[in-house]
Specification:
Layout (H helix, E strand, L loop, with lengths): L2 H25 L10 E3 L7 E7 L10 H28 L4 H27 L25 E6 L3 E4 L11 E4 L3 E2 L1 H26 L4 E2 L5 E2 L5
């Protein structure tokens, strides 16, 4: 796969992710039950834009305190740097185009969320019960690398109650899909699933196309397969 194709995937995902986040941040507010906090896409009950901000990692996990948020931001930066190095490596090794695509999606998603955590606290004002301002005179709602990740995509496809005979959750209310996420999260999840589902084809093809090992007498012997 050509490097420019991987770069194009990354650029498109980041632009879409940031465009939607900035629109939500500058047109909506965090207020449960108010019109500017949520709306149905095309009037559909199961597809909604619901503005919320994530102070931590995926699925609401949080590292407490300023240092916890700083650690998370630094971790994202290190992960992105490592991801860029790894993507360049597998492109040079002529890895399967599907694997390169999956890694590109994961890297794009990581960069998208890293931008929020690094810059949004400085760029925007607070969004609680008001629409955020861009570069407010009084300063942003947080410092560098202290920003919150903007989430908005919500797909409450169906809901109900667990049967009473279900251990631990019997009789409790459930909703699918209750998590609210963004395009960057979707890119990461898609990339991971592509690798999990198609890893047999990705890695077997690379193994079969590996060059033969050369023995000391210049004869060739096939590389052993794991």
């Amino acid at each position: 796969m050509k490097p420019y194709k991987a770069a194009l995937i990354i650029i498109v995902v980041i632009l879409l992710d940031q465009a939607l986040k900035i629109w939500v941040k500058t047109n909506m507010m965090i207020c449960y039950g108010c019109p500017q906090g949520e709306f149905k896409v095309l009037g559909l009950d199961w597809f909604r834009i619901h503005f919320t901000e994530n102070p931590g990692m995926a699925f609401g996990m949080v590292l407490p305190g300023v240092f916890g948020k700083l650690f998370l931001s630094v971790f994202r930066l290190v992960a992105v740097t490592g991801g860029i190095w790894y993507l360049r490596k597998i492109i040079k090794e002529n890895a399967h185009w599907g694997f390169v695509t999956a890694v590109s999606l994961i890297l794009a998603g990581a960069i998208g969320n890293m931008i929020d955590g690094t810059f949004y606290g400085v760029i925007f004002s607070d969004s609680n019960f008001k629409v955020a301002e861009v570069f407010p005179q009084s300063g942003g709602y947080a410092g560098w690398m202290q920003g919150l990740v903007v989430d908005m995509l919500w797909f409450p496809l169906f809901q109900g109650y667990f049967p009473d005979w279900v251990p631990f959750w019997g009789g409790q209310h459930f909703e699918f899909f209750r998590f609210i996420f963004n395009i960057a999260d979707a890119a990461i999840t898609t990339g991971v699933f592509i690798i999990l589902i198609f890893q047999k084809w990705f890695f077997v093809e690379r193994e079969e196309s590996s060059p033969s090992a050369v023995s000391s007498d210049n004869s060739t012997i096939p590389l052993a397969k794991n």
